Amino acid sequence: MIAIVLFGKPGAGKGTQAEFLKEKYNLTHISTGDVFRYNLKNGTELGNQAKVFIDKGELVPDSITINMLADEVAKNMDKAGFLFDGFPRTIKQAEALEALLEEKGIDFVGTIGLDANDEVLVARILERGKTSGRADDQDETKIRNRYKEYNEKTAPLIEFYNNKNQYAAVDGIGSIEEVTERLSKVIDTLV
Ligand code: AMP
Which GO BP terms sit in this record (predicted)? Predict the structure, then answer.
């Protein structure tokens, strides 16, 4: 089995692209944001724990997020591998992911970043907020806080993966099909 991380700022198009790539490469798509939202909607204990952070546009603590991710991986060992979206978001999560994949015998083939400019993305998220029903997509202060969290805690992962030769980036601006094509080209060199 293989694992690929789709990396990028909020609104960069990770979820949209994952929908296409998971079919093409027979991967289980795990979006930690989606798993949190599912739990929020269903009022689970995990959902209640995560709610306070998500509502403020802050990252959910590593311990909660890492356990959740490990459960999702354990439940989905039936495809050719995994496409992670929105995880890892901290160095600690990246280290935990490495250990988990090694334990499960899953080959980590790399991280692919979707590059895009902040102002384009904030506008895109506000637009998405009109229909996504996500409170964290509707308030510009919360959105800006998500970028602050990204810059402080998540951006250092680029260097982390670059140092291991496990990072590539593509231009995330373009039509959905164009971006899928760019990502596929990179994935084809990795798998
Ligand atoms: P997303 O749908 O990926 O934009 O995630 C929405 C929210 O869920 C984030 O703003 C965080 O509050 C939380 N979240 C999702 N993934 C993670 C993660 N890997 N670590 C911590 N918090 C996360």
Answer: AMP salvage
Among 14, 22, 142, 153, the one annotated catalytic: 14
Q: Look up the pTM and report it.
A: 0.96
- Here the CATH number for the domain that contains residue 27 is 3.40.50.300
- The Cα 11–Cα 15 span in angstroms is 9
Q: How many Å is the Cα radius of gyration of the chain?
A: 16
Asked if residue 188 is part of any domain, the answer here is no
Looking at 9, 22, 146, 153, which residue is catalytic? 146
Q: Catalytic residue at 124?
A: no
> Does 15 reside within a domain?
yes
The CA distance from 112 to 114, in Å, is: 7
Atom nearest to 57 CA in ligand 1: 10
pLDDT of residue 128: 93
CA 2 to chain centre: 16
- pLDDT-derived band at 51 (thresholds 50, 70, 90) equals very high
Atom of ligand 1 nearest to the CA of 34: 2
User: 65 alpha carbon to ligand 1 midpoint, in Å?
Assistant: 9
